């Protein structure tokens, strides 16, 4: 018999103070303030062992990770336990003030192989040069909470050729791309000696700084982000080769309520803005620059999809007047947006453990003659169960994470 008698429980996530995060958005949303002036980069909701959420039960606040371990059928459902044996997703709110590292996520097969190889080599899980923290893939989807900017995949061939032909410093790179392909070009710039990187990029950085200062750039221009990287620097020494990626990748603007999915092999980097992010329950990241963390170029190149990409920005598909879905081609997770007007209700049913996070408003969750109220900055964990009703006490915006039912 479970210690937990209720099917819907308040859930408390964990703030991650990564240096690239903003100081206000998440703190204001949570209503906690930020007297220490720490960066509030991510708010994690899930059962990741390194930062499990707590759920508020009649027995006090308990670790969701531990509860799933102790009561897997009750918390996950039979299907999810059999297929994943854990909560297969991690749900987050992000506030990106400074751009994140250029990164690629491996496939599930590659992650398992890399994990076993690093284990056999005796590289500890916490080692700074560890690439594979677990055996899982890390596909992810983000839905914008504001105008959000990111890098996503290589530019289509014509657009990349235009960049190579019009940026003076890249004059010698066009031939490498034409004779080889995306991989030949990227391998060349990512493997160049640092002195050559500096020689090629210094005049480019200086020119972009001047252009941004004179108002000649917008966020749609690579130079805007390059200038942002170096603004305020007294001296520009070794230039991060991640700068090449800013010119070679698609710069994508995602408006509030729009989404983009990022599968294995697609190189990407978040640039600026706030979003809701949902991913497989993994911490496997292969980095290629714009970060003080471990960069492993050979490993990155091994798992990158070297092809031009036309970014697919999803507007969402209407499930009902109140519910919008963002289809993702993975079995690990699904995400929906729920918008309710004052006093509007919807009925729902959870076939897996669901996490509902309130971006704004207040909602009452009712089931089996019981109820719980959650407001802006709060989340609830909903155990697999029969129907429940959600009623908005004011205009309310909710995002929900779940595991899709088996086909």
TrEMBL record:
Keywords: Isomerase, Metal-binding, Zinc
Name used for this protein in its record: mannose-6-phosphate isomerase
Cofactor(s) needed for function: Zn(2+)
Transmembrane segments: none
UniProt domain Phosphomannose isomerase type I catalytic: residue ranges: 10-155
Note describing how the cofactor binds: Binds 1 zinc ion per subunit.
Coiled-coil intervals: none
Family assignment from sequence similarity: Belongs to the mannose-6-phosphate isomerase type 1 family.
Keyword field contains Isomerase: yes
Binding site for Zn(2+): 103, 105, 140, 268
Pfam name, any one: PMI_typeI_cat
Enzyme class (EC, first level): isomerase
UniProt record, GO biological process: carbohydrate metabolic process; GDP-mannose biosynthetic process
Keyword Coiled coil found: no
Residue numbers annotated as active site: 287
Lineage, highest ranks first: Bacteria, Pseudomonadati, Bacteroidota, Chitinophagia, Chitinophagales
One GO term describing the cellular component: cytosol
Known catalytic reactions: D-mannose 6-phosphate = D-fructose 6-phosphate
Entry EC no(s): 5.3.1.8
């Amino acid at each position: 018999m479970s210690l937990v008698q209720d099917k819907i429980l308040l859930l408390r996530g964990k703030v991650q103070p990564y240096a690239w995060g903003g100081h206000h958005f998440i703190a204001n949303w949570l209503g906690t303030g930020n007297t220490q002036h720490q960066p509030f980069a991510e708010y994690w909701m899930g059962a990741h062992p390194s930062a499990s959420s707590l759920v508020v039960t009649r027995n006090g606040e308990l670790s969701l990770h531990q509860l799933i371990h102790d009561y897997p059928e009750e918390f996950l459902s039979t299907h999810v336990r059999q297929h994943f044996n854990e909560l297969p997703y991690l749900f987050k709110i992000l506030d990106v003030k400074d751009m994140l590292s250029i990164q690629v996520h491996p496939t599930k097969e590659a992650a398992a192989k890399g994990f076993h190889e690093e284990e056999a080599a005796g590289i500890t899980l916490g080692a700074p040069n560890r690439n594979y923290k677990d055996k899982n893939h890390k596909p992810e989807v983000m839905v914008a909470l504001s105008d959000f900017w990111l890098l996503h995949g290589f530019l289509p061939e014509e657009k990349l050729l235009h960049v190579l032909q019009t940026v003076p410093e890249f004059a010698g790179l066009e031939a490498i791309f034409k004779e080889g392909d995306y991989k030949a070009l990227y391998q060349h710039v990512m493997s160049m000696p640092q002195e050559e990187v500096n020689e090629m990029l210094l005049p480019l950085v200086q020119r972009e700084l001047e252009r941004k200062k004179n108002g000649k750039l917008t966020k749609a221009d690579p130079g805007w982000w390059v200038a942002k990287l170096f603004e305020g620097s007294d001296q520009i020494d070794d230039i991060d080769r991640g700068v090449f990626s800013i010119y070679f990748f698609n710069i994508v603007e995602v408006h509030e309520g729009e989404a983009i999915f990022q599968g294995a092999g697609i190189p990407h980097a978040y640039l600026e803005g706030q979003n809701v992010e949902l991913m497989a329950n993994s911490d496997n990241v292969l980095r290629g620059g714009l970060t003080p963390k471990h960069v492993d170029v050979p490993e990155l190149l091994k798992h990158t999809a070297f092809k031009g990409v036309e970014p697919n920005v999803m507007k969402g598909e209407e499930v009902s007047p109140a519910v919008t879905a963002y289809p993702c081609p993975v079995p690990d997770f699904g995400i929906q947006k729920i918008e309710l007007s004052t006093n509007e209700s919807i009925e729902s049913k959870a076939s897996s453990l669901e996490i509902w996070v309130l971006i704004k408003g207040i909602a009452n969750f009712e089931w089996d003659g019981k109820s719980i109220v959650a407001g802006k900055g709060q989340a609830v964990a909903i155990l697999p169960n029969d129907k429940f009703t959600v009623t908005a006490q004011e205009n309310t915006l909710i995002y929900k994470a779940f595991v899709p039912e088996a086909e």
